[in-house]
Design brief:
By secondary structure, this protein is an alpha/beta fold. The protein has 8 helices and 14 strands.
C-alpha cells in the first residue's frame, strides 16, 4: 500500500476517540496484556493479566490477530529460514542486512503463492537489499489474481480460474476479492511469467518434490510465506485446558460468531474477529461479510448479556459494567 502510516494512525486514533466517547475511558484499559482465559458455568470468564491482576466478564471477543509459525517441513533448513512478516518490516530487513550483508549474489527461495510471497518477491527484485543471483517462488496452488470480473481474469498455466460459487463476489462481481494478488505483488507476478526478470522463476510443486528439495538445499536464504495461524490466549473451561494457543492453527467461527469448540464441549460466550486467516471458503466475500456478521452477533450479545455477568475492574478503577 502507498498510504502513509501517519494517515493510517490518524484513522485509528479517530476510531479510538469514538470508542472512548461512547464507552467511557473507565472501561478502556491500555497497556494491560492478557495472558490466559478461564471460564466457569454460572460465573463467566476470568482474564489473567501479565501484571498478576484479573478481570471478570461474561462475554469475550478475541481480536488478537494472526501469527506466522515455521512450517515443519522447513525445520531442516531452520538456520536459513526467515518469515515473510519479518522480511517486510524495517526491523527484519535490518536484521537480514546485519546477518547477510545484503542479498547481492545470493540464491533466494520464497515459499508460498499468495500476497505475502509476491510482496517479498517485489522487495527482493527491487534491489533495495541487493540483487539476488537467482530467486525462486515455489508455490503449491495456482496463483489467484484479483480482477474486476471474469472477463478480465488472466488465463494461463500459472493462474487459478475463479469458480462462480466460491470465488466471485456477489456484491461487486470481482474475482478473488480478498485472496487475489493486487498492486505491486500482482505486477511482480505478471513480470515473472513474462520473463522480465532473468534471475527470477516460478516453481509449481503440489508436494515436496525432488526439484523443490534441490532448490531449498541450494538456497542461501529461504523466506516462508505460507500463510498465518490464529494468535490465541491459553483457554481453560471448568479447570480443563482446552488449548494453549500455539497448537491451534486456525480458529473456526460459527455463523453466530462464537468460536467453534470441540463437539463434546458446550458453546461459551467467546467470540472471535480479526484472527481468522481464511474465515470462509468463499473468497468473494471474505473477510468483510463474515466480520460484519460477527460484529452484529457480538452487539446483540452485549445488549442481552448473560444474567451472571460480573465485571471486576482493575484495582483503583471505579467501574461497574463492561464486556
Amino acid at each position: 500500500s502507498n498510504v502513509p502510516l501517519e494517515a493510517v494512525g490518524r484513522v485509528f486514533a479517530a476510531c479510538g476517540r469514538w470508542v472512548q466517547r461512547n464507552m467511557g475511558s473507565e472501561h478502556i484499559y491500555l497497556r494491560h496484556r492478557a495472558v490466559r482465559l478461564s471460564y466457569r458455568n454460572g460465573q463467566g470468564f476470568t482474564v489473567y493479566l501479565a501484571d498478576g491482576s484479573t478481570l471478570r466478564t461474561g462475554i469475550i471477543a478475541l481480536a488478537t490477530g494472526i501469527r506466522e509459525a515455521m512450517h515443519p517441513s522447513l525445520e531442516p533448513h531452520r538456520n536459513r529460514v526467515m518469515l515473510s512478516g519479518e522480511m517486510l518490516t524495517m526491523e527484519g530487513q535490518c536484521a537480514l542486512l546485519e546477518r547477510y550483508g545484503s542479498l547481492e549474489g545470493k540464491s533466494i527461495t520464497i515459499m508460498g503463492g499468495a500476497h505475502s510471497s509476491f510482496s517479498v518477491a517485489h522487495l527482493c527484485l527491487s534491489g533495495v537489499l541487493g540483487r539476488p543471483r537467482h530467486m525462486v517462488v515455489a508455490h503449491r496452488s495456482l496463483i489467484r489474481l484479483f480482477s474486476t470480473g471474469v472477463s478480465s481474469v488472466l488465463v494461463g498455466p500459472w493462474t487459478h480460474f475463479p469458480a462462480a460459487q466460491t470465488d466471485l463476489c456477489p456484491e461487486t462481481g470481482t474475482a478473488f476479492r480478498y485472496s487475489g494478488l493486487r498492486g505491486a505483488a500482482a505486477n511482480t507476478f505478471r513480470e515473472m511469467i513474462s520473463g522480465v526478470h532473468a534471475n527470477a522463476s516460478l516453481l509449481h510443486s503440489a508436494d515436496r518434490s525432488e526439484a523443490l528439495d534441490s532448490v531449498l538445499s541450494a538456497s542461501d536464504l529461504i523466506i516462508q510465506a505460507t500463510g498465518y495461524h490464529s494468535r490465541l490466549l491459553p483457554l481453560e473451561i471448568e479447570d480443563r485446558e482446552i488449548w494453549t494457543g500455539d497448537e491451534v492453527e486456525v480458529v473456526r467461527v460459527l455463523e453466530n460468531g462464537l468460536v467453534r469448540l470441540d463437539e463434546s464441549q458446550n458453546q461459551i460466550p467467546l467470540y472471535a474477529a480479526g484472527l481468522v486467516p481464511n474465515p470462509t471458503a468463499d473468497n468473494g466475500t471474505q473477510p468483510n461479510s463474515l466480520y460484519s456478521r460477527i460484529g452484529e452477533c457480538l452487539l446483540s450479545a452485549c445488549e442481552n448479556p448473560p444474567s451472571f455477568q460480573i465485571f471486576q475492574p482493575l484495582p483503583g478503577v471505579d467501574c461497574h459494567v463492561g464486556v
